[in-house]
Write a sequence for this structure.
């Protein structure tokens, strides 16, 4: 089968028609981004960064904006509800040389929505437009917007919202196929993403329920989107990007062996420790606990090992965990 054409060009970046890693707060940190890029993610996006935090000189916000070359192409995702702060933040992040800026208008989490940011902006299209225009005015790189289908089922407005974002100057948009009220429950509505794609002239990135390479191909086919974004389907499964890349070329990637799963889990733990040199190892290792558990999801005995994952206190403990888990799998296969 002939290779697929490139999806689209955004600023200085031409994306292959595969999949990009979603910006997931508390999950897709530098270690996660580096790992997913190594398995073929078409690009990455920072965890969401508070525009007020940036404007007030918060050290943590600045660290979230720092980009290393192996993470590129990479965008910086900003969230906020005031155009003046968005403008200042868009100007400030230019020093980090992002490949693009993404504005979060889809986060459903209460502490974000309560400030008027995230998916709350879908209830105020004129304000959302002002925010996009403010960012576009101050940015030397493209500005994109990520949003949902609407606030709730009875107030879906993704199509008019998408048109408004295009009119305000967004270079591309990402649509998560759920409403704010759904959070991450239920099924993503890919038909709604297709409706958005048909309504605008700018590139549309589809997001929601991409768990397998087959899902990725199906999303392209069903929505007509220009690029796919994978999020929770990558939990403990960076191999998804390798599988997607193969599938887009008409090939089938061999699923990861148990040994590769555990080797990658340990590599992930090492990256977490390396990417957080300012933290003592016994503190940094805590960030690895949930990831370690995800690498075991769906495998025999995963439940009994989960408690051990959540008590990891050193890299040596992670190595022992991997060895014990592999041994359990071998015993189970022999029974």
């Amino acid at each position: 089968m002939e290779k697929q054409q490139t999806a689209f060009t955004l600023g200085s970046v031409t994306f292959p028609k595969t999949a990009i890693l979603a910006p997931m707060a508390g999950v897709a940190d530098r270690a996660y981004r580096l790992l997913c890029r190594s398995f073929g993610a078409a690009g990455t996006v920072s965890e969401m960064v508070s525009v007020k935090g940036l404007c007030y000189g918060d050290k943590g916000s600045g660290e979230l904006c720092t980009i290393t070359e192996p993470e590129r192409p990479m965008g910086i995702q900003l969230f906020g509800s005031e155009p003046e702060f968005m403008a200042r933040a868009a100007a400030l992040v230019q020093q980090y040389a992002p490949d693009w800026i993404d504005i979060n208008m889809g986060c459903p989490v209460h502490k974000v929505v309560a400030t008027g940011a995230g998916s709350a902006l879908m209830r105020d299209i004129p304000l959302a437009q002002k925010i996009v225009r403010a960012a576009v005015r101050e940015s030397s790189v493209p500005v994109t917007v990520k949003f949902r289908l609407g606030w709730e089922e009875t107030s879906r407005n993704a199509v008019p919202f998408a048109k408004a974002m295009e009119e305000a100057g967004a270079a591309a948009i990402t649509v998560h196929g759920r409403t704010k009220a759904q959070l991450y429950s239920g099924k993503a509505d890919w038909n709604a993403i297709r409706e958005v794609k048909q309504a605008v002239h700018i590139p549309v990135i589809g997001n929601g329920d991409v768990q397998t390479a087959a899902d990725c191909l199906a999303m392209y086919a069903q929505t007509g989107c220009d690029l796919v974004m994978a999020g929770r389907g990558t939990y403990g499964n960076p191999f998804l990007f390798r599988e997607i890349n193969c599938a887009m070329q008409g090939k089938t990637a061999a699923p990861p062996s148990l040994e590769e799963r555990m080797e990658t889990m340990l590599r992930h733990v090492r990256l977490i420790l390396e990417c957080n040199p300012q933290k003592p190892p016994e503190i940094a290792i805590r960030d690895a606990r949930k990831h370690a558990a995800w690498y075991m999801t769906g495998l025999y005995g995963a439940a009994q090992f989960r408690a051990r994952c959540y008590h990891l206190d050193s890299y040596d403990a992670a190595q022992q965990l991997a060895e014990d888990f592999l041994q359990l799998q071998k015993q189970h296969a022999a029974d």
